[in-house]
Write a structure and sequence with these properties.
Layout lengths: L1 H18 L12 E9 L2 E11 L6 E9 L5 E11 L3 E3 L2 E2 L13 E8 L4 E8 L5 E9 L4 E13 L12 E12 L3
Length: 185
Amino acid sequence: MKKHLLFFIFIVFWLQACKEKPEYLYAIDLETWGDASATKNGLPWTATCGAITSNMYPGKFVFTLSNLNSTNYLRGQFSFRYVPFKQGVYFPLDYPTEFGTLPDSAMTVGFSTFLDDGDVAGDQYVMLGDSAVVLFIDKIDPQTKEFWGRFSATMIKYIEHQEWDPNSPDTLVFENGVYYSKITR
C-alpha cells in the first residue's frame, strides 16, 4: 500500500511540474529568428535571436540573444524577460540570481556563459550598475511581429558561490549592438 501511495504522489507532482513551463528560457527552447551583432570587449560578437510572447503578461515578450561557436555550441546568452512590445528605450533590471524582490512583471536581463557542448552552465553576469544595459526597440511590424533595435551593456561576473570558468573575463562590455528578430509564438 505504501508503494502505491508513494507512486501516486510522485505522479501528481510530476504532472504538476509538466503543466507549467517557466518563462525564463534558454536557446534550445526557442525557435531562432533573426540575428544580432555587437562588439564584446572590443571584438566582434554575433548571436541568433529568439522571441516568444509572455504567457503571463500580455503585451510583453521574452527575448534571447544566443552566441554560438563555430561548431554551433552555445557559449553565451542574453535573456531579456517581459519586454514591452512597443517602440521605446528600455532599461532592464538585473534578473535576480537569488531570491529576488522584483515585481514579477518587471523587465529583467541576465547574461550567462556556457561550457562543454553548450549544455553546461558557466558563469553568470549581472549589470555593472543602474542603466548599465539599454535595449532600444526602434521599429516594430505589428502584422508580422518582426522588430528591430539596438543594445549596449556592461556586465560583471557574479561570483556569489562559485566561479565556473576562471578564463572568462570579469567584465563584459557590449557596444554598438544591433538586432533583428520576430516573435515566433
